[in-house]
Design brief:
This protein has a six-stranded mixed sheet, covered by helices on one side. The longest helix has 20 residues. Helix content is 35%, strand content 12%. The chain is an alpha/beta fold. Strand 4 and strand 5 form a beta hairpin. The chain has a single domain, classed as Beta-carbonic Anhydrase, Chain A, CATH 3.40.1050. The N terminus and C terminus are likely disordered. The relative contact order is 0.15. The site of zinc ion has 7 residues, from helix 5.
Length: 257
């Protein structure tokens, strides 16, 4: 714990391993790092382009990874980016979905990631016990909420990974996110659309599922029609997609859809 006076020298401004006094001083220091475009966007009415669902994991910084500024995404960060079936959604998620509809946000992005602690907890505890178990059971249980049969999948993934929990967890994180995507499509849609799947079918909304590798920054995208993951490297926007205005500051563009 650093108790000495912070001078706000650039060298002292570490983003890592921050104690509370430093964290609070960074609020002030960070205030100077906003570009004028960001300042403007923060003071304006928000019209977010995307609803972003990613894990609570502290290592994944969505605004950096996807390079967007203020006003672009509504962020929701449940453990392992889990979206349960609509009839099992808690109020925290339902209220965010309602907010998405109120703000008329057309795009939804789910981002799973490598080395996910939630997925690894589920691998280690394929049958969590909420009543008598500990905190790890509570975390593992969250990953079960997609409805995947993890009790069956976890031993299979562990065996395939020769007992490597990280690798097995990476496989599970992908599968959990695919199930989350399938669940998401059944949620109530915007406007006249009964479901989000209906929004997409009508060309009024889009959903992307990504898997982000924290080690390599490599990104895969899940193709629901093919039922397969593919590298995002070859992504090309649709010919009729609006051009992203060129700017030297962080572009307020939505992430790749
Ligand atoms: Zn995670």
């Amino acid at each position: 714990m650093a108790n000495e006076e912070h001078t706000h020298d650039h060298d002292e401004y570490s983003h890592f391993h921050i104690d509370m006094p430093s964290l609070l001083s960074h609020v002030l220091k960070g205030d100077q790092t906003f570009t004028s475009d960001e300042d403007k966007a923060m003071g304006a009415v928000q019209h977010p382009s995307a609803f972003l669902i990613c894990c609570i994991d502290s290592r994944f910084q969505p605004d950096k990874a996807l390079d967007y500024g203020p006003g672009v995404t509504l962020e929701y960060r449940p453990i392992s980016a889990v979206i349960p079936p609509p009839d099992q959604a808690d109020q925290a998620l339902l209220s965010r979905m309602a907010f998405r509809r109120l703000k008329d946000v057309p795009n939804i992005v789910i981002i799973a990631h490598s080395d996910c602690g939630g997925a690894q907890a589920a691998i280690n505890i394929p049958n969590p016990d909420l009543k008598n178990g500990g905190d790890l059971d509570v975390v593992a249980y969250e990953v079960h909420r997609t409805g995947l049969d993890i009790g069956k999948l976890a031993p299979e993934f562990l065996k395939a990974a020769n007992g490597d929990v990280k690798e097995a967890g990476n496989h599970l994180a992908r599968d959990v996110s695919v199930q989350s995507l399938k669940n998401l499509l059944q949620y109530k849609g915007r406007g006249e659309f009964a479901t989000i799947a209906d929004e997409i079918a009508a060309g009024k909304g889009s959903v992307a599922l990504l898997y982000y590798d924290l080690d390599t920054h490599k990104v895969d995208q899940y193709d629901l029609s093919k039922g397969a993951w593919e590298p995002l490297a070859g992504y090309k926007p649709a010919p009729n997609a609006p051009a992203v205005p060129s700017t030297t500051s962080k572009p307020p563009a939505p992430p790749a859809m």
